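Q: What would this complex look like in 3D?
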Amino acid sequence: MEGEATCFEHAGKRAVAVCNKCGRFLCALCEVEVAGQIWCPSCLVSRNTGGPIQALENRRTLFDSIALALAVLPALFVYPAILTGPAVFYLAIRYWKRPSSIIPRSKWRFVVALLFASAELGMFALVIFAFFQLRSSSGTVQK
Amino acid sequence: MTPAFPYVKLPGSYHGFFRQASLWEGADHILLVSGSRFSEEYRRFYYRDIQALLVEKRPRAGSPGWWIILSILLIIATISTGQNDPPYSWVGLAVLSLILLIRLDLTFRRSCRCSIQTAVSREVLPSLIRRRNAENAINRLHTRIIAEQGELPDEIPFSESEEDVASLVVPPAPDSPSASQVLAEAAALERRRLAARGINLAILTCFLLLLNSVFTLWFSSEPRPVLGRWPLWFGYLFIAAELVSVFLSLQSLTGLKALKGLRAFLITIIVLCVLRTLMGLTLTQTQMVLARAYSAYFGAMFNRYYVNTNAGIQFALAAVGLILIFTTWDSYRRGEISAH
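A: Here is my prediction, written as structure tokens for the whole assembly.
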């Protein structure tokens, strides 16, 4: 081994590759092939890659579909919409920029969910306004 | 700048109410996307690891949700056609019936189950349930896999008929343990195939019973002194269809111990079909006498009583059958169907 490059993790083993992220020398045991690149185990664990590794992802949550369901389904029962409306706004704002699916997917679900939630909350605001208007007008008549 | 999307969609996808799946072709792997409406799971199969792509011809119904919607729409269209006389009301019923026939054809004649075989596992591809899609997808993957793994030493000929396939298989020595194992596996596979066909036909029988029940109620919606000719012919046609479906189902289910209950149910349907036919014939003769001898009131009352009882029996039978099938569904899907 004298005069030869050795693995960063295993000093007794010959280096066969270089980590594409940190440049460490790696033996055959340590080299990990990810998306056509060679990474060392440390970079893989610390996600030293500037974001999630798409080639290793095995699950994603579809927040746009959740927002759409929260906006549309409670509308059938009217009252839950007062709680789910703000939740839709939270989800849409919080996860707007987060990639939703590996496969191509547009933002229309978020847009429709926001429109529904706005309409629902607007209706509730209108009902509350009308309620107080009626109450104040009936109070004026009684006086 | 966003990088170019690295996948191309392969033919075939599954869109259920709650589950969905699709298959994507990547540079060095296939991506299987499956999951619910609110989350997705990803499986990657690298071309270098794929040992085989298996296509089993078998009935696949697809999403149960769409079947439920189609059935509900069909029932609504039937009732609506029965209540409204205008000819255009038949158009909806005809279109829905055509869709039903196409779906039945797809389910029974053009469906399959695809799997990917690797060194460590065999994974089912839920997006490939139609044969044409499966063939197109495999044709596209074939070139990719060959590019990665190289050509097979001898090209295996593709054959449709079972005789041709059987002629290709060299019969193993009868005394070797692997031969008996292979034969047992083949027998189990055949039992499962038969059970699948039998159960699907039993489901079809239940749907026919439900449809017959709706038609029967529809015909009884207007008071008539005697049963008309069309209602009777419809009734006999349905009974004939039910009998054919039951006999074919029983033929497939013979000797399958786990499905003894279902067989008893199918035999009950045969007995009731015969009784209903006899009752219908007797009633027609009686009505002819009644209509002549007594007032129309008794005829109509008799008619309504018979029709409602008939519809009730059909509905109850269909419900019992569907419950029976769906309670054994899990064991059927796991292949726990033993002979005798």
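A: To summarize the key features: Chain A touches chain B at residues 36, 55, 57-62, 65-66, 69, 101-104 (CB under 8 Å). Strands of chain A lie at 17-18, 25-26, 32-34, 37-39, 59-61.
Q: Very helpful, thank you.
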